[in-house]
Amino acid sequence: MSLNNSSNVFLDSAPSNTSRFQVNVINEGHESSAAADNSDPPHYEETSFGEESQTRFRISFRPGKQECYDNFLQNGETTKTDASFHVYDSHTNTYYLQTFGHNTMDAVPKIDYYRNTGSLSGPKANRPSLLEIHEQLAKNVAVAPGSTDRVANGDGMPGDEQDENKEEDDKSGGVKFGWVKGVLVRCMLNIWGVMLFIRLSWIVGEAGIGLGVIIIGLAVTVTAITGLSTSAIATNGYVRGGGAYYLISRSLGPEFGGSIGLIFAFANAVAVAMYVVGFAETVVDLLKESDSMMVDPTNDIRIIGSITVVILLGISVAGMEWEAKAQVILLIILLIAIANFFIGTVIPSNNEKKSRGFFNYQASIFAENFGPSFTKGEGFFSVFAIFFPAATGILAGANISGDLEDPQDAIPRGTMLAIFITTVAYIGVAICVGACVVRDATGNMNDTIISGMNCNGSAACGLGYDFSRCQHEPCQYGLMNNFQVMSMVSGFGPLITAGIFSATLSSALASLVSAPKVFQALCKDNIYKALQFFAKGYGKNNEPLRGYILTFVIAMAFILIAELNTIAPIISNFFLASYALINFSCFHASYAKSPGWRPAYGIYNMWVSLFGAVLCCAVMFVINWWAAVITYIIEFFLYIYVTYKKPDVNWGSSTQALSYVSALDNALELTTVEDHVKNFRPQCIVLTGGPMTRPALLDITHAFTKNSGLCICCEVFVGPRKLCVKEMNSGMAKKQAWLIKNKIKAFYAAVAADCFRDGVRSLLQASGLGRMKPNTLVIGYKRNWRKAQLTEIENYVGIIHDAFDFEIGVVIVRISQGFDISQVLQVQDELEKLEQERLALEATIKDNESEEGAGGIRGLFKKAGKLNITKPTSKKDSGINTIQSMHVGEFNQKLVEASTQFKKKQGKGTIDVWWLFDDGGLTLLIPYILTLRKKWKDCKLRIYVGGKVNRIEEEKIAMASLLSKFRIKFAEIHIIGDINMKPNKESWKVFEELIEPYRLHESCKDLTTAEKLKRETPWKITDTELEAIKEKSYRQVRLNELLQEHSRAANLIVLSLPVARKGSISDWLYMAWLEILTKNLPPVLLVRGNHKNVLTFYS
């Protein structure tokens, strides 16, 4: 639709339409006082610049009315809508409801262009393609083809599609948490575990205040570095649900993510059991004190633990909002319990507490407890191993990343602040308890110092108590002996018990939520196909109810087993393995130097992250060496499994980035090294066209390049450039994917050119990279050369000349049936389409069965029967074997069989090498490489060389010596002494008949006629040319006779390719040579190297 600039367009609009969106005109010269006096600042959605620099306009939408404007623009031009809005242009004001600069399709930058398809945060918009803004615009067409499903300039999506996305967003709009409730609260609750109340005092007693703080600091160093790495990864792009699994898998790839995700989810599931059992043990201790045991301690733990897990499951299943409320309540209880302890340290101690070692803050106690006093069997690392699990839990917030409003902001802020707060609390409790309570106390109020008694010099002795007998017999109180020190010190003991309940239940609840969330994300990615059942979510929050049930079953199983002391070290190591990989992910992404690594959280360092990863691995062995070994074995097994399965995902991981950097570095490093004959390998350009159209040519080339040399499948698109480039670009990825699917280690390259020879010339010159450049051209023999047009023959022979000009070797491959199976593939595609149409027709008939009469149905079936379709069998990897189930008359069955002959294992036989001319050794090297392959290893090399009749034995010995020096094994050597004999008359007659249609026969005509014929048909074979190279023609015919005699039963013949001297041998004569040379033979490789050594006998 053309642009309408009439002056009265806007006047046509109804007044009621102005209420739908507002247009505020602002003159920079302050000509409009109304605009200047507007107190409400307008919302800028789009800004357009008209032809007059003095004016501009603003558009603001009223709520919910953006769709009116969405229908307003198409392809950068203003169009008439139902509301009759048009462009208005006058002498003073110009309105262009477009991007800056009218009559443009170019889009302004907008976030919607960068969303993933199906993004829940907003609809994905499609910017105009480069083709749409680059190609010439058709006359009288305002809307470019294919752009009707989008609004140009990124102004949103068409109304219907936008409404659908809004409905999707509403459906998925569950409860989302901020950084406090979603991350800070969860991390604090998970870090503050039961260890704070019942083990920290013992750690201070063993290690002392000094080493105790160092132990806390070392543990926090590990978690803080991990927190920094987590923050960096979480701010490098949008974070979905899955927590640690999501961060690791998107950074290091599915192999690492899939392995750690499974054990991390399992670790969280078992952690539920650990925390619940901790809660149950505390309850059982209270029951013992009140003599209210139900059965026995073990069974009571099972009963209470089972009931607790069921209650926690109910809270979790009720929804994240209920679970979050429960967490807040538990945090309040926990904070009150911690505050209760600090208050208790300043409340004056009574005699009972003093007898148990609590004397309030005393400098003498602080000094005495500052140094370590390890008991037998304990040391720094053993105490550290006991404390470290108390510092974990930093991923509690990240694990519910899918339920956070803004994970990129919430995870760094909440995680790091939680680490800081909990660290201050741990250090504060450690110092306070170390300054108030002595290491050993009897609990006997009568153990006071009486005047005249000898004092042992301890802090308690100076404070009036004698606990010296604790040196000879075990005592029940003090830091070293009493796990309930915090209850004793606190202002109100039961609050500490409540704190223990809060710590255990909150950690259990966090783990019960984390495990299903992580597991659901893992299952959604379909890395383990057997677990796809657990990917389904329910409700607005996409709750993983199936994952909750699985976690519940695992937790119940371990509660009933009640052997958590054995499994606990493994679980701790599972968490540490996750921390190690998160740190390594951050290091790896930084080291790969990918431009896509741009974390918004800049407080990190790649080497610090690497140190953190190493530290995590070291801590794993410190905690429990056998548990660390088990963790590594499980992770390695899962890594191998995922690598073997090769999930079809592409997340742009740093592993990919590093692979690219490594390949680039190696390629650059390779350019600094001079080529050496010992490192020569065939690096081939194969003119296959589409790789699936000439599979046999690709297979034989791949046989001697696989794992040793470069192989590039090349295709030349000839024709109008616009059409060729479009076709080439559209098929590039598909054809490379075909190579990967069929496990062919090769690249695909294509060019668009005016003629076939120009395209190949471009490929020969520009293909490859540095030292990895092609040195051999592989082409199929042109079987239809006698029916081909002149330009086709000129191009075919011309590319051989071009290859030799560029000093590139040439290999021409001939098989009896030819290589091109494109017609077969076309038949297959057509039959598949017909089969789909038949199935669609049957479905239509079935749907309309109730409406149509029997006659109509019979008529439809009769029409379908005329298609004569046979249902194809399932596809193989090559996509060729399916043809065998179709009608034989529709294609050449022998051609299909021939196209797969090099895929099969070659039985016992021979590869006959006719090394007639020394080309540097390529004619010998290629068959030798073939014998190293699994499919050709049963074939022996037979070497045929030309020689003198009277020196056959001497030359055989010389050749055997040369091959031995080359270390090439051979079965036989044959010296052919009669190569230069004339061929028999029948063979020569066949050759003459072959070239007869292409001869000029100028000697039979007068001079004037002969000259005229030469000018009109310069490509024909002249009598002069034929006579001049008659001996060479005799040789080609004679060689065919010898090949028929000696190599008719060979599996493969490798033969020196004759070279046509430029300007001396016409193209048609050269084609006749190749024809007569390889006629009626097994598969033949005509090989000619570039006459540079590719073999050496020097070490």
TrEMBL record:
UniProt cross-references to Pfam families, sorted A to Z: AA_permease, AA_permease_N, SLC12
Signal peptide range: none
Residue segments, region Disordered: 32-54, 144-172
SLC12A transporter C-terminal domain span: 694-1099
Gene3D superfamilies in alphabetical order: Amino acid/polyamine transporter I (1.20.1740.10)
Transmembrane region(s): 179-198, 210-239, 259-280, 301-320, 326-347, 379-398, 418-438, 545-564, 570-591, 603-627
Compartments in which it is found: Cell membrane
Domain Amino acid permease/ SLC12A: 182-685
Gene Ontology terms, MF aspect: sodium:potassium:chloride symporter activity
Domain annotation Amino acid permease N-terminal: ranges: 89-156
Family annotation (InterPro entries): AA-permease/SLC12A_dom (IPR004841), AA_permease_N (IPR013612), SLC12_C (IPR018491), Slc12a1 (IPR002445), SLC12A1/SLC12A2 (IPR002443), SLC12A_fam (IPR004842)
Gene Ontology biological process terms in this record: cell volume homeostasis; chloride ion homeostasis; potassium ion homeostasis; potassium ion import across plasma membrane; sodium ion homeostasis
Bilayer disposition of the protein: Multi-pass membrane protein
Residue stretches of biased makeup (Acidic residues): 158-167
Coiled-coil features, chain-numbered ranges: 824-851
Keywords assigned by UniProt, alphabetized: Cell membrane, Chloride, Coiled coil, Glycoprotein, Ion transport, Membrane, Phosphoprotein, Potassium, Potassium transport, Sodium, Sodium transport, Symport, Transmembrane, Transmembrane helix, Transport
One Gene Ontology cellular component: apical plasma membrane
Keyword Amino-acid biosynthesis: no
Known catalytic reactions: K(+)(out) + 2 chloride(out) + Na(+)(out) = K(+)(in) + 2 chloride(in) + Na(+)(in)
PANTHER family hit by this protein: SOLUTE CARRIER FAMILY 12 MEMBER 1, SOLUTE CARRIER FAMILY 12, CATION COTRANSPORTERS
Family named by the database record: Belongs to the SLC12A transporter family.
Protein name stated in the entry: Solute carrier family 12 member 1
Species assigned in the record: Pipistrellus kuhlii (Kuhl's pipistrelle)
